[in-house]
């Protein structure tokens, strides 16, 4: 085992650019086998090893496993980092997010350039099967990658070419009793679904792994063929077939791994590129999709500033960002703080207030500046509001006032609706 491991690691050049590595160890057989292989080959691989462990506190053995690893590392003079899961509720996803967040923080604080985990070929097959169940896109059927970016370094899985049955270790390890529980999907896949399908075809696990490899090669070939293309150029993008457009957009969105948009959101973005002119669209995790006549891009929502902004004109339905606000024409915004009726098919101008601005309220035309004074609007608030104007007439002031002109349109069948709220 140790000799094959060394050969795989050297041929894969896994640790060529890494000196200090952090190994994720649960104290189970797989991770203890990984740790053993790294320890006996560390001189050949020229690496320094540290161990990271998460105590989930879900089983009676959890504390014993942590103490065992602490003593094990102390005897071998290995740095040991551990933490206790402190979320009120546990799920597979919450546990995974907590675990990798801890590993990433430890790497950054202690100067490790790669994290090493004990995922093996059986894990790969289970992952591909689970993604099939969840309806994942083809690119995700490539399964677990052997090497991938992680934090400011890399995540390496040197055992992916090994079957679980090959993983043996002379060191002690713990058997995780929760691996036999059917509460978690992965356990059901491992203990029920795949064994049942292997009765139909004993090579089922191998075929899943081959599917992941073929998907990975296909996707990499497409990436190689499109490497020099200007993906975000709207004119170029729209000249492509729908199939190519779909792939190009998937490829572009890979640059934002924490975005994780759904299939329906993906289809919506594709439709926006194909049909809209100037457009802004709010995404999850503080991202924004922006498109103009020449280019589209995904960007983080800009922080609030007090800089002078150019006037912004809304000419079509959709969601738009201006200053500290989100505006949506004819598409309801969840928790909108202001709703303004506007004339249909007439451009709407968003701008900062000017001297001499007047608004019609309760039958009287009043200077905006006087209205602020009368309503005791704080000075810092006055500087952050915007004017909503249509046809040179003020229909509202963001989160402050709505003009009679807008209210008179309420029952007009030729009206449109503008929804407004502050960005989170």
Question: In words, what does this structure look like?
Answer:
- It is a single chain.
- This protein is α+β, with helices and mostly antiparallel strands and 424 residues long.
- 37% of the residues lie in helices and 22% in strands.
- The protein is built from 14 helices and 20 strands.
- The strands form 5 sheets. The protein has a 6-stranded mixed beta sheet, with helices on both faces.
- Strand 17 and strand 18 form a beta hairpin.
- The longest helix has 22 residues, at 204-225.
- It is elongated.
Write a concise keyword list for the protein shown above:
single chain, 424 residues, alpha+beta, six-stranded mixed sheet, five-stranded antiparallel sheet, 14 helices, 20 strands, 37% helix
Largest sheet: 6 strands, mixed
Low-pLDDT segments: none
Structural class: alpha+beta
Query: Nearest-angstrom radius of gyration?
Result: 29 Å
- Described by the principal axes of the CA atoms, the overall outline is elongated
Mean pLDDT score: 90
Main sheet: which strands, in order across?
A: 3-2-1-4-6-5
């Amino acid at each position: 085992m140790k000799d094959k491991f060394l050969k795989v690691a050297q041929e894969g050049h896994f640790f060529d650019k890494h000196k200090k590595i952090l190994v994720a160890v649960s104290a189970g057989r797989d991770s203890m086998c990984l740790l053993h292989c790294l320890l006996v080959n560390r001189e050949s691989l020229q690496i320094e090893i540290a161990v990271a462990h998460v105590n989930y506190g879900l089983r009676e053995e959890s504390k014993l496993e942590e103490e065992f690893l602490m003593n094990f590392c102390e005897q071998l003079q290995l740095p040991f980092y551990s933490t206790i899961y402190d979320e009120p509720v546990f799920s597979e996803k919450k546990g995974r997010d907590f675990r990798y967040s801890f590993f990433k923080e430890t790497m950054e604080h202690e100067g490790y350039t790669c994290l090493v985990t004990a995922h093996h070929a059986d894990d790969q097959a289970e992952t591909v099967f689970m993604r099939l169940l969840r309806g994942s896109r083809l690119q995700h059927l490539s399964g677990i990658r052997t090497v991938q970016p992680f934090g400011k370094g890399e995540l390496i899985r040197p055992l992916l070419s090994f079957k679980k049955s090959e993983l043996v270790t002379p060191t002690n390890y713990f058997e995780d009793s929760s691996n036999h529980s059917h509460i978690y999907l992965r356990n059901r896949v491992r203990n029920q679904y795949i064994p049942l399908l292997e009765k139909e075809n004993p090579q089922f696990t191998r075929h899943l792994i081959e599917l992941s490899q073929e998907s990975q090669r296909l996707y990499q070939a497409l990436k190689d063929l499109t490497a020099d293309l200007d993906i975000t150029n709207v004119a170029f993008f729209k000249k492509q077939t729908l199939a190519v457009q779909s792939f190009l957009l998937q490829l572009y969105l890979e640059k934002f791994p924490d975005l994780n948009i759904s299939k329906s959101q993906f289809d919506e973005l594709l439709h926006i590129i194909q049909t809209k002119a100037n457009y802004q669209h709010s995404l999850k995790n503080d991202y924004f999709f922006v498109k103009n006549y020449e280019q589209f891009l995904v960007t983080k929502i800009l922080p609030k500033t007090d800089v002078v902004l150019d006037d912004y004109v809304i000419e079509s339905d959709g969601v738009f960002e201006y200053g500290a606000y989100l505006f949506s024409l004819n598409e309801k915004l969840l928790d909108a703080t202001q709703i303004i009726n506007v004339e249909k098919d007439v451009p709407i101008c968003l701008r900062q207030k000017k001297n001499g601005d007047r608004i019609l309220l309760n039958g009287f035309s009043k200077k905006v500046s006087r209205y602020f004074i009368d309503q005791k609007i704080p000075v810092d608030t006055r500087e952050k509001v915007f004017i909503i104007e249509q046809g040179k007439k003020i229909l509202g002031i963001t989160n402050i006032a709505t003009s009679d002109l807008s209210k008179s349109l309420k029952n007009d069948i030729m009206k449109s609706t503008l929804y407004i709220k502050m960005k989170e």
